[in-house]
Each structure stands twice: as structure tokens, then as C-alpha cells.
Amino acid sequence: MPRAALFDVDGTLTDTTYLHVTAWWEALRQAGHEVPTVALHRAIGLGGHDLIAHALGEGRDQDQDEAISAAHKTLFGAWHERLAALEGARELLHALHDRGWLIVLVTSAGPGELAAMRRALDADDLISHISSASDVARGKPAPDSLEQARETAGAAREQTVFIGDSVWDMEAASRAGVTAVGVLSGGIPRADLEDAGAQEIYQDPADLLTRLDESVYARLERAS
Length: 224
Description:
Elements: E1 3-7, H1 17-30, H2 37-43, H3 48-56, H4 65-77, H5 89-98, E2 101-106, H6 111-121, E3 127-131, H7 144-153, E4 160-164, H8 167-176, E5 179-183, H9 190-195, E6 200-202, H10 205-210, H11 216-223
Parallel strand pairs: 1-2, 1-4, 2-3, 4-5, 5-6
Helix pairs in contact: 1-2, 1-4
């Protein structure tokens, strides 16, 4: 059976985490809400509706959600043309693809954001499938998007690795029964990722690339 390398995108392959924090902070401020940036940072990786609920609580005026999400989309859109891939991200995708892994992106980003990040990565020829927010009913930390991505790739759980930068990524991987690998490039502490289920942690894609032969990817290759 094929081996599937599932990747979160924001903060894992592209340097976008803190841009999202700023955009959400301003979108919420425009709606009359002062939310500390540290709280928003912890929420990055959730889908828009879940992020707003996380920031404002379930008792909020949900009639504001659509306007807040639209404001975030507009604010983040100002950076689309300047988004950058993290160091080693493109090379890591190439290396895994050359080793026979199917590359699948798993993201809660909307179409415009995803298109901008794909341009920054410049690796469309390596990507076999993308599982986006529109493909599933529930976003991370629910396992739906990872399960959809794995099933589309045709890979067994024990032959699937998901790499992400947030606790939501690690929780989703654990619930989906696949190997969870964390990176620190999204700014979440190592201990938080470990507590959420990360089985290996690397500084960023470049760090994983240099240590690929001692990683879970190589161990699964040798075992198959």
C-alpha cells in the first residue's frame, strides 16, 4: 500500500502564523472585540468559525461571525503576494516525493488563501491531493480532514504521517490514528505539542529534512 505524507500548511510549510494572528486581531477589533494576540496565536489552526468561538466564547453574538471572517479574509489577503515558504519546505516535499511518499495537503484555509500558499510553495507537481475546509463538515481538531486525505491517498493508518505546528494538528492526528509529527515553526511550545500527541518534533521543515534518515518516515520505509 502507498505511504502518505500529510501536511498542514499554515505555520508548517509557509510562514503565515503571525500574519493570521494580526489579521484576526484586527478583524475582531473592527467588530468591537479586544482579544489578546496570545489567545489568538493559540487558536491558529482552527477553522474560522471555531477560531471565533474559541476567542469569544459560545455565548457571543454569532451574527457577527460572517463579518469577522470576511474582514480576516480581506486583511490577510493584503499579504497574499508576499507569502513565503518556510526554509526547507519545498525541498522536504521533493525529498519525500522522491522516496515514494504521496504528498497531501490538509488545511482549513479558504480557496484564496490556499492558492496564495501554493504559489509560495511552488510545488504543485509534487502534491497528489489537497483536503481543504470545504471537503469536510468538521475542521481540526476533529479527524475528518485527515481521514479524508488518507483515504483519498489509499494509505493505511500505520503508513500515514501528519506533520503540523499546532496542538489542533496533533490532536487531529491522534484521533485519526496516524503518526503525529510537530514542528516549532508556528511558535507553539514543544511541551504543548507533545502533550497533544506529537511523536516527533523538529524545529522546522529544514531541520526535518536534515534528519530525515533518522525520522519516522525512514523507519516506516524500512519496515515496509
